[in-house]
Structures are given as structure tokens and as C-alpha cells.
Amino acid sequence: MLAAGALLVGCSSGDGGKAATATTNAAVGFEFSGDAATIDAKPLKASIIADTLAVFEAAPGALEQAFGTAELHQPGTDQPDPLIVADVLSTEISVRLIEDELARRGLTVSADAKALATTQVDAFFGDSLDGQPAYKQVLANRYAGYVTLDQALTGPPPSDAALRAEYDRGPTAFDLACSKHILVETAEEAKAIVTELAAGGDFAALAKARSIDTGSGANGGDLGCSARGVYVPEFETAVWSGPVAVVQGPVQSQFGYHVIVVTDRRSRTFEQAREDIANALAPEPFAALQEWLTKQWADTTVTVDPRYGTWDRDSGRVVPIGVEGDGVTVGSGPAPTSK
Fold first, then answer.
1. Bridge partners, residue 178, by sequence
2. Which domain covers residue 88, as residue numbers?
3. Structure confidence at residue 294 (pLDDT)
4. Taking a C-beta distance cutoff of 8 angstroms, is the pair 61, 41 a contact?
5. What is the mean pLDDT of residues 161-176?
6. Other CB atoms closer than 10 Å to residue 322's CB: what's the count?
7. Which of 270, 294, 321 is the last residue of a domain?
8. What is the mean pLDDT of residues 18-42?
9. pLDDT digits (tens, 9 = 90+) for 197-206
10. What is the residue-wise DSSP string for 116-180?
11. How much is the pTM?
12. What is the DSSP string of 1-50?
């Protein structure tokens, strides 16, 4: 599934780190002239790959973030790793498909999409591309396009009628339970805390001092309010079946022993639950775009110059030449040529 870093520069493979471990049978030479591929007979210039590689050669931190390796080149050579070359070309093919579809539909990228894209690129790469502002902007523009096409493919959000129907199917599914807990390693520790609380001990102070759940412990053990199905079964039973405002414990789970207090349990009206229902019914981001891309990979005529590998229409990836990885050896491919 597409994620924040996917389809930016080669992250679409989902192979995080494979480039760092793959080995070549023999050095593979690249010469980035002419066309790297054609997409329904429209050329994709090989120079695009060279330009992208130059950016990452100058920004090794971004290289590692994008491809899972700090090494751009084949061992002992000045030639790029075939896996990285194939990843970049794979991404450029998908980018071209998306850009063509945006143009065909006459879609305009909104200010919100641009802002989201900038935030995502910044989050993914941090400051590793600060020395490459032009390329960073290219990535933000691309991502904004992905957001725009995904929204167009997804369609409008669920209607009020659909939200209401979901609520009416089972209103109790949207109940909330608010709780706090202290987590310790042994039943004896939990029993001791129960005793201290019965003697007037302060729950928040004990949570801060003794809970091994440091996240909630720092907040006095408070877990906030949640819907059903959030916790492991033992904790879930205590939160939804135990008495309110009464100390429960020790309650054993896979994490240790809990001392639990349910501070509130309440139903919610449709209006109170509306936002959560809308979030639950909303499709996963980029699910529609991924489905559309998968169909395009299969239906589009893509021809890859054998200097760079072969096209796999099922995965939407260029299979690199001269690479041995995961026990599979791909042929060394033809000698570099110019076109």
C-alpha cells in the first residue's frame, strides 16, 4: 500500500533495505542516453534517472531514507546499484501514468493538497534534502498530484444518511470508556498498590512512581477515553464490564499486571459520534490510487530499454539487470549501448 514515502523517488518497491544487501554477479555499466522506457509509445528519457541519481549522490542522508542504503554505487565502481536504478525508473513510470491521468481529467491541485504534500515530504526526508531545494519541490509537487488523483478516484465522503445508518446498526459500538491504570511486572506488586490505594494512596502519584507503562505513568496513569475493541482482551473486559470508580486488580495481560480504575463509561449520541463514524468509513489514504495504478500497470504498454532491466506489469516494477538478491539471480544483461 502506498504510504508517505511511496512513489517519491523509488520507495514504491516496499523493499526497504534490499538495495543495501543485494550483490551483482559482475559490474553492470550504465550510460544514461536516449530513452529508458516508452509508455504507450511515449518516451521517458534516461537522463531523468541520471538527474535523480545526481541528487542522491549529493544527499546521502536522503539516499538512505529513500532506498534503505547509504551506498549508491556498486562495490568498487563508480556505477550506480542496479536496484536503485530500477527503483528510480519504476517510480518515474508510475509518476508519468499519474501525471497523464491528472491532465486527462483536467484536475487542479488545491492549496490544501500542496500544503499536505510539503508536510509529508518534510516529514519523510527531514533536513536531508535541504541542499536540494529544487528537487524537494519536485517531490512535493508530485505528492500533491497523488493526493489530488486519489481524492478524485475515491469520490465524495460518506453522506449524512450513510453515517446515520452506520450508527443505527449498533449505537453501543460508539460508547466510550475512560480509564486509568498502573502496570507492574508481578502480581505481588499489583496487590501492594491495591492495598496502598485502599489506605488512601494517590493513584496519580503511584502511577508516576511505579508504573512500567511510562507513557501513561507520566500522566498519572490516565489512558483517556476509547471505544470498544482497543485493548487486549483481559484489559478490555475490565474496562467494559468492571464497576466504575472502583479499583480493579491485579488484572493480568501479556504486558504484566494492571491495577485499573474506570473513571467513566457513557453512551454517545449520533452527533457526538459523527466524527468517529466518518473516520471509520473513510477509505484508507491512497487505497483508490493504488488500485488504479495496479490496473494501469497491467493495461499500459510499457517497454523498458534492456540496459535497465525488464518491466513486470504485475508489480509495476522494473526488474533490474545483473542483480542477485533473495536467492534469485537475474541475467547480467547486454552491454551498455547508446540510443
1. 225, 264
2. 11-155+283-329
3. 94
4. no
5. 91
6. 22
7. 270
8. 75
9. 999 999 999 9
10. HHHHHHHHHHTTTTTT-HHHHHHHHHHHHHHHHHHHHHH-SPPPHHHHHHHHHH-GGGG-EEEEE
11. 0.69
12. ---TTTTSSSGGG--TTHHHH-EESS-------SEEEEETTEEEETHHHH
